[in-house]
Automatic annotation (TrEMBL):
Xref: InterPro entries: Class_I_gatase-like, GATASE, Imidazole-glycPsynth_HisH
Reaction catalysed by this enzyme: 5-[(5-phospho-1-deoxy-D-ribulos-1-ylimino)methylamino]-1-(5-phospho-beta-D-ribosyl)imidazole-4-carboxamide + L-glutamine = D-erythro-1-(imidazol-4-yl)glycerol 3-phosphate + 5-amino-1-(5-phospho-beta-D-ribosyl)imidazole-4-carboxamide + L-glutamate + H(+); L-glutamine + H2O = L-glutamate + NH4(+)
Lineage of the species this protein comes from: Bacteria, Bacillati, Actinomycetota, Actinomycetes, Geodermatophilales
Organism annotation: Geodermatophilus maliterrae
The protein's name in its UniProt record: Imidazole glycerol phosphate synthase subunit HisH
Active site: 82, 193, 195
Compartmental location: Cytoplasm
Length: 212
C-alpha cells in the first residue's frame, strides 16, 4: 500500500516540487492546509522558502505549530525541509528581527559566517554512522539554497544517558559548520532540498517513507 503523505500548504514552500518528488518515490501525496488531513496522513512534510518570520506567520495561520506538536506527541512522522526545518527550532534571527519558532528543538537560526552568501549549490554532508535518512548515501551531494542555519545543536549531545535516544545530527560546511539534517524520533528535517537533489534526494525520501 502507498503511504499517504500530506505536504502542508501554508503559503511558503516548493509545494509542487515536493509533491512530484514524493509521488515519484511511491507516496500518495496531498497538498493542503487542512488540519485534519495533516493530522491523519502517514507522514507530514513541512516545506519552507523565504524569511523565518514570514514562514512562521504563515504556519501559525493554518495552526501548523500545534498540528506538528500533536503529530509528534502521537509518534506520527514529520519531515521539515529548508526553512521548514529552521522553524522547528526555538528562534530565528534575520535582518535584526528575532522571531519565535515552533520550539521542537533548542537552537537559533542565524546568518552563516561565510565569504559567499547565499550558500547555493551542491554540497556533501557528514552523517552519523547509524543514520536512517542517509542510509546508502555516503559521499553523495545535496542541493542547498540558504544564507541562514543552525550552528550549534545541544539537545542530547552532552553524552549523558537519558530515557530517549539522542537526536542524530548531520552536518555540512560552508564557511563554518551548520546543521544539514536531524533525525529525532518521529521528527526529521533537512536544510537542503531533497526534491532538488536528484537521485540522492530521491533515495533520502525513499528512506523516510520506509519509516512511516
Amino acid at each position: 500500500m502507498k503511504k499517504k503523505v500530506t505536504v502542508l500548504d501554508y503559503g511558503s514552500g516548493n509545494l509542487r516540487s515536493a509533491e512530484r518528488a514524493l509521488a515519484r518515490v511511491g507516496a500518495e501525496v496531498t497538498v493542503t492546509a487542512d488540519r485534519d488531513a495533516a493530522l491523519d496522513a502517514d507522514g507530514l512534510v513541512v516545506p519552507g522558502v523565504g524569511a523565518f518570520a514570514h514562514c512562521m506567520a504563515g504556519l501559525r495561520a493554518v495552526d501548523g505549530p500545534r498540528t506538528i506538536g500533536r503529530r509528534l506527541a502521537g509518534g506520527r512522522p514529520v519531515l521539515g525541509i529548508c526553512v521548514g526545518m529552521q522553524v522547528l527550532f526555538e528562534r530565528g534571527v534575520e535582518h535584526g528581527q528575532d522571531a519565535e519558532g515552533c520550539g521542537e528543538w533548542p537552537g537559533v537560526v542565524e546568518q552563516l559566517e561565510a565569504p559567499v552568501l547565499p550558500h547555493m549549490g551542491w554540497n556533501t554532508v557528514a552523517a552519523p554512522a547509524d543514520t536512517v535518512l542517509f542510509d546508502g548515501l555516503a559521499d553523495e551531494r545535496f542541493y542547498f539554497v540558504h544564507s541562514y542555519g543552525v550552528r550549534e545543536f545541544s539537545l542530547g549531545q552532552d553524552g549523558r544517558p537519558g530515557p530517549l535516544a539522542p537526536p542524530k545530527v548531520t552536518w555540512a560546511e560552508h564557511g563554518d559548520r551548520f546543521v544539514a539534517g536531524v533525525e529525532n524520533g518521529a521528527l526529521s528535517a533537512t536544510q537542503f532540498h531533497p526534491e532538488k537533489s536528484g537521485d540522492a534526494g530521491a533515495q533520502l525520501l525513499t528512506n523516510w517513507l520506509a519509516t512511516l
